[in-house]
Amino acid sequence: MNAVYIYILVAIFTPGPNNVMSSASSSRIGFLKTLPFMAGVLVGTFLVFCLTSIFYVALYDKIPIIKTYIGFIGAAYICFLAFKIAITDNLKETKNIKSKNLFFKAIFLTFVNPKVIIFGLTVTGLFYRWGINIEQLLKVSSALASLCFLSVIIWGGFGYLFMRVLAQYQKVFNTIMASLLIFSALLIIIDTV
Q: What global pTM score does this model have?
């Protein structure tokens, strides 16, 4: 059981699309303007975890090929995000970011983020095999979404705290963040095949 909790914490707090985007956004437009994105991650992860719980119970064990499609589609979207971060010119990008859109972008990102989907399916599978019913899985979904929210707040806080330093090294920071996203996509593809 302790190994499951360690897996949950490592999966949630390590670099992934939501964490990297929170850090990158906070470094560009500030922590407060990134809060809608963070709230979108909370809502999106809760919905994804609820849906993966229901999906797992209903279909996932019976149709394992679905994991492949989810992995490749999500990895492609994450690579697209990496490309967008890598080519971003901080001054131009800041003018184009609107906080109201960040909430919905985060929900969309979460729904195509294979790390979140596969994490949700994995954790659901572990808890479901231990005899936890669907109502309890929804409570677990709430707890996991709260941890994801805490994670994007922490990553966003780091992005904001280092904003001035990052402004001097924006291209390097963008390259590192894009590389982390590509690394996430590669791990997802490896896990998918």
A: 0.71
Residue 18 lies in a domain: no
Instruction: Please check whether residue 26 lies inside any domain of the structure.
Output: no
Alpha-carbon distance of 116 to 165, in angstroms, equals: 30
Q: Does any domain span residue 137?
A: yes
- Phi/psi at 17 (5° precision): -55, -45
Length of the chain: 193
Q: Which residues touch 186 (CB under 8 Å, ≥6 apart)?
A: 75
The C-alpha angle 54, 10, 82, rounded to 5 degrees, equals 85
pLDDT tens, 53-88? 888 777 766 776 766 776 677 677 778 777 877 887
DSSP state of 14: S
